[in-house]
Amino acid sequence: MVIEALHVGGSAWSFLPVKNSLGGVWHNIVQVINRPVVGSRRFRDYFRGSVGRGDGILFWLDPWLKDVPLKDVFPMLFSLEVVKTCSVEDRLRGEFLWKHDPELPSELTELAALNVAVAQVSLSDRKDDWKWLPDKAGIFSVKSAKQLLETVDNSNSGFVLQWCKWVPIKCNAFVWRAGLNRIPTIDSLRRRGIGVGDALCPLCKSVDESVEHLFTSCVIASILWQKVSRWCRIPPIFAFSFKDLVEIHNGPAIIPRVKHIIHGIIFVSCWVLWAARNKVVFSGMEVKVDSLFGEVRSLDLSNFMVDI
């Protein structure tokens, strides 16, 4: 109750709320739990809520249906949610409370996917609990956590990038570094002990910045990916991790003759997003998704567009 009273609130929606300005023991605990342990996967990603009654797990903010909170999977719907701290029970036994009914194509796409996902869930009289994923029984132990950490090879994150030959080398190099979590996002700088003030994403100002958030779940990125997918005439782009994003072109829905085109467009879009982020941080410029999309479309695709 003390932790909740001190740290819950503000716009940094998270199932591990923390106000960095307060410091202290809880702040240190959250830093450890949020720290990447295998590649870009954080220690917190190995816990998942197991729903019983649904009154003890937050619908949007806790990871329960997927390995990440639903706010990261369905960012457009989360922005429309009125009660962002609602429980699973609130939404499965009640109704969604939207600021306005979903109406944009991207909102309706997310809503359809959400309805399919939650249709598989049924509530019971069992108390909600949490599972530790590395253990088959779901029970956390120091031994299993130690075994997990011992599997980490610090010299190799396991991220192998397929470079794209027709885009600028700088784009390939950037995506490679981002996949290794080696670009100076706010969470990366803080892990190195560099004080950077506000931890919120410079683009959306709603969630702490990280590689995963900036390129997969930030509302600016989400809208850009929807525009890119419509332009390329491919299914809507939804990625749960940066690795998923840069491997979109290998998906079964992408026809073989355009895989290399989609591959390059994703790389350049990531570069454009990062450049826009830096303009916000260092020049205070306003980000407009249409302008970002225009930069992506300005690519010289004259030799490739015939295939799309």
Question: What does this entry show, briefly?
Answer:
The protein is mainly alpha-helical.
Q: Level of helix content?
A: 40-55%
Taking all residues together, what is the mean pLDDT? Answer: 86
List the domain count as a whole number.
2
> Describe the biggest sheet?
2 strands, antiparallel
Basic shape: globular
Beta content comes to under 5%
> If helices are DSSP runs of H or I spanning 4 or more residues, what is the number of helices?
14
User: In terms of quaternary structure, what is this?
Assistant: single chain
**Over the alpha carbons, how many angstroms does the gyration radius reach?**
20 Å
Order of helices and strands: HHEEEHHHHEHHHHHHHH
> Which regions contain 5 or more consecutive residues with pLDDT less than 50?
302-308
Can you walk through the features of this model?
There is one protein chain. The protein is 43% helix and 4% strand. The protein has 14 helices and four strands. The chain starts with a helix and ends in an 11-residue tail after the last helix.
